Amino acid sequence: MRQTRFTKSVAAALGSAMLLTGAGITVLGAFPQYTEAAAVKPTEAFSLFEQRVKKPSTLSLAQATLVNRISQMTQAEANLAVLHLENALKAYLPTATKRMNTPAIQKDIKSIYTSGMTMVLARSKVKQYDSRVVLQDLTAMDYKLGTDGGQFVPVIHYKSFKVFKPYISQDLQAYIDLMAAESEQPSVINGTLQIDWYQVVERAVQYEAFVQTYKTSNRTAAVKKAFEVSRRYVFYGTPNTPLFDQKTQVIKEEAVIAYENTLSEAGPEQTDDSRLLTQLGDFLLLLEKNGDKRTQAVNDFLIAM
After folding, report:
1. For the chain (length 305 residues), average pLDDT per consecutive 10?
2. Which of 166, 225, 245, 248 makes a 20 to 30 Å CA pair with 212?
C-alpha cells in the first residue's frame, strides 16, 4: 500500500474536529465580538492598518503594516486585519488582472518567463518600463505570478499569510494553510488536474474537516464552496481529466488504486467520521458490482449523493 501524506494530514484534521467537538470548545470565527472589541479601544497598529487597507493606492503599505506590526494588535484585531487584507486583495484582483492583461505586458513577460518564475524575478527581467511598473506594484501588494489559459495573471500569495498564523485564531490558521496549498499547487488549470488522485481526495477531506470543525468561522462559507468543487473532482474528475474513460466508461485504474489506498489508510473510524469517505467507499463497492463502469446505477448513485 502506498503511504502518502493522507494518513498524517487528514487524520490530524479529522482528529482535530473530534477533539474540539468532544471538548465542547466554541470556535470563534464569525467575529461579531471582535468588531466590537476593536471599536472600543483599537491599537495604533490596527488603526493604521485599517486606514491603509481601504484604498488600493495604500494596499501595499497596509500589507507591510500588518507584517511589521501585527504583534502589536490584539488577537481580535489581528483576525479582522487578516480578513480585511484578504478581502482587499480579492477586491483589487480584477483590476490587477486587467492591468497585467495588456498585449504589451503579456508579450514582455512571455519573452523572459520560465516555469515557476516569481513576480519579483519577472519584474527584474522585463524590458518595458510599463511592465516593470505594473509588476512592481503587484509585487508590493504581495500578489504572485500565475498562469491561466495561456495568460499571465496575478494570484493572491496565500503562502505569505503564514507569517500571521502565530497571532490569529485556529480557524484562520487552518484556512490559510488550505488556501496556501491550493495557491502553491492549483488542483486544476484550464480544466486539467494538476495533482494526483491521492491529493484530490486529501484536499476534499481537509475542506470537509474544516467545515466540520469550524462551523461558525467567518471563512466556513468559502471553504464549503471549495469543498463542493473538490468533491466533484473526486467523483467526476475534470473536463480534461475525467474520472471515467470517455470511450469505455471504465473508471481510471490509477484513481481506483488511490481511492482504495486512501480508505485503507484512513481506517474504519476515520471513514465513519467523514461523509465524503463513507460515500467514496460505497461508490467503490457499487463500481465493483458494475464492472468498474459508469452504468445507470452508478449515475443514479452520483445524482442521489
Report:
1. 46 42 32 49 96 95 97 97 98 96 96 93 95 95 90 95 97 97 93 96 97 96 97 97 96 97 93 96 97 96 93
2. 166
189 phi and psi, to 5 degrees?
-130, 125
Copy the grid coordinates of residue 56. Answer: 488600493
Residue 216 and residue 209 in contact, taking contact as beta carbons nearer than 8 Å: no
**What is the spatial distance between Cα 191 and Cα 150, in angstroms, rounded to a whole number?**
13
Q: How far apart are CA 121 and CA 143, in angstroms?
A: 13
- pTM to 2 decimal places: 0.85
CB 153 within 8 A of CB 98: no
What dihedral angle (degrees, nearest 10) is formed by the CA atoms of 83, 88, 89, 90? Answer: 90
Helices 296-304 and 275-289: crossing angle in degrees, nearest 10, is 170
Please give the backbone phi and psi of residue 158, each rounded to the nearest 5 degrees, phi first. -65, -25
Q: Which residue in the block uniquely carries the three cell numbers 484530490?
A: 200
